[in-house]
């Protein structure tokens, strides 16, 4: 495991350094240009914003991959996620959302990511799958044992356990790639009479977007919390910007944490 992790980190460091050199060169050549915040909404949007009106009695807060490997400085993916998680205040924002939803008696559900030994034998994989398996992200001994789970990268962030382990939060079976098609999350939400979903978590451009797409296809009304999601920044592109662009195209609502908390508060 250690050799595999070191190999991955060396490869990752090389990629990040290459991207930084490119960005530094671009910054030097454009020093006289004004700084543009690409996360801001366009001044003159072409599309009408989603007009979702939250009904707490029919809604659920769904949080994806609230786990150590993605959100803790000790997590294996922190080298590529730490910047976005920190600058977007994802952890305190998720804490606000959890607290508001629990206080309002709103359904809360988790869609976790877990990998077992046999998942590492897949013969068909995409780039991010290979990355995760090389580093051992979200690895567990097996579905019927908690051996080594407590405090591991696959475990939930300690700050959130008071909300997650209250005996009321739905913890769905794990999703394996990005969307909820392979777990029981939609079934659990339907059984609670949920028709609206407030969506947050990780990774913004992968699992969050994939959950959004599937929920929309199933007829749910979905709002994404734009500052309670985060994604990697790699030479291949900024996952945060990629996600935000698609959220603007598809989501029924695109809210900040503060906006969402005001809607959830009883």
Describe the model.
- The chain is α/β, with parallel strands linked by helices and 266 residues long.
- It has 2 domains: 1-32; 54-264, Isochorismatase-like (Rossmann fold).
- The protein contains 10 helices and 8 strands.
- A 6-stranded parallel β-sheet has the order 3-2-1-4-5-8, with helices on both faces. It has a two-stranded antiparallel sheet with strand order 6-7.
- A hairpin with a 2-residue loop joins strand 6 (233-234) and strand 7.
- Helix 4 runs parallel beside helix 10 and helix 8 runs parallel beside helix 9 (239-250).
- The longest helix has 28 residues, at 2-29.
- The N and C termini lie far apart (48 Å).
- The model is unreliable at 13-35 (pLDDT under 50).
Structure keywords:
about 270 residues; alpha/beta; Rossmann fold; 2 domains; globular
Can you give the helix content as a percent range? 40-55%
Mean pLDDT: 85
State the end-to-end CA separation: 48 Å
Briefly note the structural class of the backbone.
alpha/beta
Per the CATH scheme, the topology name of the largest domain is Rossmann fold
Q: State the shape.
A: globular
Query: Which strand-content bin applies to the residues?
Result: 5-15%
Question: What is the count of helical runs?
Answer: 10
How are the strands of the largest sheet arranged?
3-2-1-4-5-8
Number of domains: 2
Highest-level CATH class of the largest domain: Alpha Beta
